[in-house]
Design a protein that fits this description.
By secondary structure, chain A is mainly alpha-helical. Helices cover about 75% and strands about 0% of the residues of chain A. Chain A contains eight helices and no strands. By secondary structure, chain B is of the alpha+beta class. Chain B folds into two domains: about 160 residues, no CATH class; about 100 residues, Immunoglobulin-like (Sandwich), CATH 2.60.40. Chain B contains seven helices and ten strands. A five-stranded mixed β-sheet of chain B has the order 4-10-9-6-7. In chain B, strands 1-5-8 form a three-stranded mixed β-sheet. A two-stranded antiparallel sheet of chain B has the order 2-3. In chain B, strand 2 and strand 3 form a beta hairpin. In chain B, helix 2 runs antiparallel to helix 3, helix 2 packs antiparallel against helix 4 and helix 2 runs parallel beside helix 6. The termini of chain B are far apart. The chains are: A mainly alpha, B alpha+beta. At the A-B interface, helix 2, helix 6 and helix 7 of A face helix 2 and helix 6 of B.
Chain lengths: ~190, ~300
């Protein structure tokens, strides 16, 4: 029997070792995903990421909508109180509102992806449970979410609607302003 | 020739400047009514957003701390009482009911700044849904406000509802955690799951009447309170403790017992049994009971 040289041995063994490592890693991931419960750190990190992204998203929605509504209503108030021709003013304001719906949708998608990256490996059941979990059972049930991704989508949708309602509370003319700005249909929760 | 041209150019320049100044004057000469309407609207929206952001941040920050203690206790085990004490002290300082808390100051700041900016424009203009009004009469809850401060206060109440509901959506355990540390009444709009109450009764003073199996629907929280009759006889001190453990969750209710002091557990979301124990310690009286919470 001819023994391979040392170099040949290393070359021959390397792929086998790599395969073994990959298999071990996959087994670890599989067991982490389907067998082991999430650690306290994983749960807290998921909650923190969700909260942080939702807050930032709500800010984008509220700030964008409030800015648009303010520009339009200032034109309208000047017209109604001082009889200033609003045509040019509204055209200028509306132009600034136009890009808002796509900006908000893009923000939602990007931020949901970040949350999914942090929470995606935790089973939905653990995110739902109140004890040893994050307590999303009622949130998931009320919106029919059957996966973590769907649940994250529900939370973002609710946050967006909440930001829109908040704007309407602060500025009851906001719905009219957004209608004039041509974007009211994209923000249906700016309403009583 | 050259002098005349220079003079003509100078006159034209002056005329141009005057024209521009006059045009600017015409464009920006807003009436007092318009100025005040704009000022009032802007103050409410700006200060309202500032307040909403502050309230949201304070609530989420407090619940973060409380949740961390609970998750560490439930998942990793161990005594998290020190963690809870720190978190609760921090929450009380920021969110308590007094005017000196961080939240109290933020509320006062909104009321003061928004109110001061709307005094001149006044209530009729704010409520008016006609041309030039700010349309606050469209808010059914606040439309009947008799004066500017009441309207501002009402708008703040509406913002608070919205913010608290948003916290519940992002951190669904917030309502239970704040209720368990005694701040639940301050935040009635934080969503709570349905609740079933168990009053830990006394077989005799200082002795627990065993509750046996506790049937609890899935998704319903178990609210536990102590009967005042549990107090040990022979003493007047109010330092008894009722410690309840359900599964991995644990809480202590201090004397005096009754409906105002309680602890919420769960809710449990899958069918099965969760073991519970109730320990009573009051002066010389020590008693305990145990059993299962059964989720059908």
């Amino acid at each position: 029997m001819i023994r391979p040289t040392t170099t040949e041995t290393i070359i021959m063994r390397a792929p086998a070792r790599t395969v073994r490592r990959v298999v071990t890693l996959l087994a670890l991931i599989a067991s982490a995903s389907y067998a082991d419960a999430a650690t306290s750190k994983e749960l807290l990190d998921c909650q923190k990421q969700l909260e942080s992204q939702v807050r930032a998203f709500s800010n984008v929605v509220l700030q964008g909508l409030a800015g648009c509504a303010q520009k339009v209503v200032e034109c309208k108030l000047a017209d109604e109180i001082d009889a200033v021709d609003p045509t040019a003013c509204i055209a200028k304001a509306a132009a600034k509102c136009t890009g808002l719906p796509s900006k908000v949708s893009d923000q939602a998608a990007a931020r949901q992806a970040k949350v999914a990256a942090r929470c995606g490996l935790i089973p939905l059941a653990e995110i739902e449970q109140f004890s040893e979990g994050l307590g999303f059972f009622n949130v998931a049930t009320s919106c029919g979410a059957a996966s973590v991704t769907a649940l994250v989508g529900c939370v973002f949708d609710a946050a967006r609607c909440s930001a829109e309602r908040e704007l309407f509370t602060l500025d009851p003319r906001a719905q009219d302003s957004l209608t004039t700005g041509g974007i009211a249909a994209s923000f249906p929760c700016v309403a009583p | 020739m050259k002098k005349r041209t220079t003079r003509a150019a100078a006159v034209a320049a002056v005329a141009g400047i005057l024209g521009t100044v006059l045009a600017v004057e015409v464009t920006h000469a807003a009436s007092v009514t318009l100025t005040e309407a704009t000022r009032c609207r802007k103050a409410i929206t700006t200060q309202g957003r500032v307040y909403a952001k502050k309230r949201l941040g304070l609530l989420l920050g407090c619940v973060d701390k409380l949740l961390k203690c609970e998750i560490l206790s439930e998942v990793d085990g161990g005594n998290q009482n020190a963690c809870r004490t720190l978190a609760e002290d921090s929450c009380n300082d920021r969110l308590g009911s007094g005017s000196t808390t961080t939240l109290g100051k933020a509320q006062a700041s909104f009321d003061e700044k928004a109110g001061a900016s709307c005094v001149v424009f006044d209530l009729p203009g704010m409520l008016s849904t006609a041309a030039g009004g700010l349309w606050y009469a469209n808010d059914a809850t606040c439309a009947a406000s008799p004066d500017v401060p009441t309207l501002i206060d009402c708008i703040r109440g509406q913002i608070e509802q919205e913010v608290d509901a948003a916290v519940g959506n992002t951190k669904p355990r917030a309502g239970i955690l704040l209720a368990n540390m005694g701040l639940g009444d301050e935040f009635p709009n934080l969503p709570l799951p349905p609740v079933q109450t168990l009053v830990v009764g006394a077989a005799s003073p200082g002795t627990i009447q065993p509750p046996g199996a506790i049937n609890l629907p899935a998704g319903t929280a178990l609210r536990v309170e102590g009967d005042p009759g549990l107090a040990c006889t022979g003493g007047s001190s109010n330092n008894g403790n009722l410690t309840i453990t359900v599964g991995t969750q644990s809480a202590t209710i201090k004397e005096p017992w009754g409906p105002t002091r309680f602890a919420l557990f769960g809710p449990y979301t899958t069918s099965g049994s969760v073991a519970y124990t109730i320990d009573l310690k009051d002066q010389s009286c020590n008693d305990s009971a145990s059993g299962n919470v059964v989720i059908p």
